[in-house]
Amino acid sequence: MEPMKRIRNFSIIAHIDHGKSTLADRLLEKTGALSPRELKEQVLDTMDLEREKGITIKAQTARLRYKSSSGEEYILNLIDTPGHVDFSYEVSRSLTACEGALLVIDASQGVEAQTLANTYLALQNDLVLIPVINKIDLAAANPELTLEQLENIIGLKREEAIMASAKKGTAIDQVLESIVSRIPSPRGNPDSPLKALIFDSWFDSYRGVIILVRVFDGELRTGTQVELMACGASYEVEEVGFLTPKPQKVECLAAGEVGYVIAGIKELNHARIGDTVTEKKRRVAQALPGFKEAKPMVFCGMFPAGESSVDDLRKALQKLRLNDSSFQYEPENSPALGMGFRCGFLGLLHREIVQERLEREFDLNLITTAPSVGFRVTGKDDRIREIHNPSQLPLPHQVKKIEEPFLEALIITPDRYLGDVLKLLESRRGEQKKMEYISTQRIFLTYLLPLNEVVMDFYNQLKSVSQGYASMDYEFSGFRESPLVKLDILINREDVDAFSLIVHKDKAFSRGKMLVEKMRKLIPRQQWEVSLQAAIGKRVIARETIKPYRKDVLAKLYGGDYTRKMKLLEKQKTGKKRMKKIGRVEIPQEAFLALLEIK
User: Fold this and answer.
1) Which of 118, 167, 272, 451 is most exposed by smallest CB count within 10 Å?
2) pLDDT recorded at residue 551
């Protein structure tokens, strides 16, 4: 058992790509948590997907032993967090389990949008912040300017900052000493009734659900009967331990410690993230506040294709939701695509990652529909409904008003790209709230943007017009009324609900025209003519035709009366007509993705 004053729980927060995972690698190396043979780059990024994309998706934990300059040995519990805006929920969960955080800032990029957002998150949780200016060895580094931004934008003193290079291992000792000296030890009473917070969980096919906890009071021993307070289920603890980052068994986790618990939990919905674990015999009176439910922002349908069945998809979604509780799903039936699920995500990258994980980890074949957002519809009878699927929208004469979600976006951009960034924001119906210079060459913009416009490829466009230098963070600001219409896509005069969109009235014509043009190239030619139409209600606003394959039925004729030709062509025509009645058009996944890529 470790005396509490020798424990430090800390997290690493930063904007995407500022070097969190590399710094975590150096800390693991310096404290000897892993042997040189086991060390590889970005050790805590365990998913193939994370390594391929070079981003952290899941918060990971590791327990380090560190002997300080005073000769005392400390236990450091490190929690590495993601940097992308779509995973800020992961960050908020990690911060709840800590007393302090390392705020990593890239010396060549300076303070960016996520740096700010994550700082606010840490301050809301009353954490002690240690600024680390990373990548000082780069030729493009400008530490002086970064320190200036640290003081002016974030409000931390420049004297507190540590100048480091995680790649070269510069100043890593200083970082470790600062963690020990500046971050407070956890508070808690080992003799009180057990109170522990679940801040992560995953499914193991042999051991059931494994949960990660931070113990606030009491102690968690093997063999104890524990209760999960949200669902009231009780289990016997089979094993407790900590991650170094490899699992290591111990007898007991005491107040202030972070570790994993295996208790033979087979019910996936019992291990809820944010729940409190307590002892069955000595229950605590009040559960910990937990986390606010993550609110999905982007919705899309997921349907099994090929060999995969709806049951496979349901089981996979259950297991994945255990590991990532920020996405939600409910059953959906589509006339065009059959049975599937309507899923809600925090953003577009989150959607892409969830789809990739389902396909890789559970070996599924999926078709996903175009992403849409949730709208609020007030009917003529003054009833308010939230709809997540365009097909749920009532008929126009039954609707009093439609409201759409708006975001408050914080964008930081170098001033030389300002014109292009403003043009992009205006084209997406943005409304400027604030614009200020935060250094001689960088501008901080605050904009109100409809989420419906952000979903459609906005992030990529922003990176494109600013050559990758602009950064963005956003938060939900509320619903506002807008003139919106439902745009339907008809294939051979049949409405395909998976393609329906709710769009702004002024953009409906151009969006519909682009969509059918793009789909004409993507849907394969058939033996019969296929018509593609974009319509608002009964009014068709754009049409494209996919010409059929035609056999040259006249090839065998040579000369003779032209009525013979006509007879053969008529026969072919009636055959094509009959085919059109019974033929089904197979829609490839690329056609659904076409919706995403409309500029």
Assistant:
1) 167
2) 75
Neighbouring residues of 507: CB distance < 8 A, sequence distance ≥ 6:
none
Compute the half-sphere exposure of residue 546: CA atoms within 13 Å on the CB side of its CA.
Answer: 23
Looking at 183-192, 307-316, 400-409, 550-559, which range is the least confident one? 550-559
Q: Please give the pLDDT value at position 532.
A: 86
Give the position of tokens 């990532």. Answer: 324
pLDDT at 495 over 80: no
Please tell me the predicted confidence (pLDDT) of residue 592: 60
Which residue's structure tokens are 């519990």?
A: 77
In terms of phi and psi (left: phi > 0; alpha: psi -120 to 50; beta: otherwise), the region of 62 is: beta
Write out pLDDT tens, residues 233-286. 788 888 888 877 677 888 888 887 888 888 887 776 777 777 788 877 777 777
pTM of the model as a whole: 0.67
Q: What is the DSSP string of 400-422?
A: EEEEEEEEEEEEEEEGGGHHHHH
Alpha carbon 501 to chain centroid, angstroms: 22
CATH class of the region 4-182:
alpha beta
Strands 73-80, 100-106: parallel, antiparallel or unpaired by DSSP? unpaired
Q: How far apart are the first and last CA of the chain?
A: 59
The structural domains of the chain, with segments of one domain joined by +, span 4-182, 195-279, 298-371, 376-481, 486-594
CATH topology agreement for domains 376-481 and 486-594: yes
Burial class from Cβ neighbours inside 10 Å (0-12, 13-18, 19+) for residue 477 reads middle
Joined tokens for residue 206: 């042999």
Residue 84 confidence class, pLDDT cut points 50, 70, 90:
low
Query: Can you give the pLDDT at residue 399?
Result: 81
Question: Which tens digits make up the pLDDT trace of 548-599?
Answer: 777 777 777 777 777 888 888 888 878 777 766 655 666 665 666 555 554 4
Per DSSP (E only), the strands in 128-238 are: 128-134, 162-163, 195-204, 208-217, 219-221, 225-228, 233-236
- Class (C level, CATH) for 298-371: alpha beta
Dihedral Cα 184, 190, 193, 195, nearest 10 deg? 40
Quote the DSSP letter at residue 292: P
Instruction: Return the residue matching tokens 């003529």.
Output: 380
The secondary structure of 507-521 as a DSSP string is GHHHHHHHHHHHHHH
- Separation between Cα atoms, residue 419 and residue 149, nearest integer Å: 23
Count of C-beta atoms within a 10 Å radius of residue 149: 20
- Which residue in 222, 168, 226, 161 sits closest to 196, CA to CA? 226
Per-residue burial over 292-320, b if 16 or more Cβ lie within 10 Å, else e, is eebebbbbbbbbbeeebeeebbbebbebb
CA distance 67 to 329: 47
The residue behind tokens 């997290």 is 11
At the fourth CATH level, the homologous superfamily of domain 195-279 is Translation factors (2.40.30.10)
Residue 350's nearest CA partner among 15, 91, 85, 44 is 85
CATH architecture of 486-594: 2-Layer Sandwich (3.30)
Distance CA 368, CA 360 (A): 15
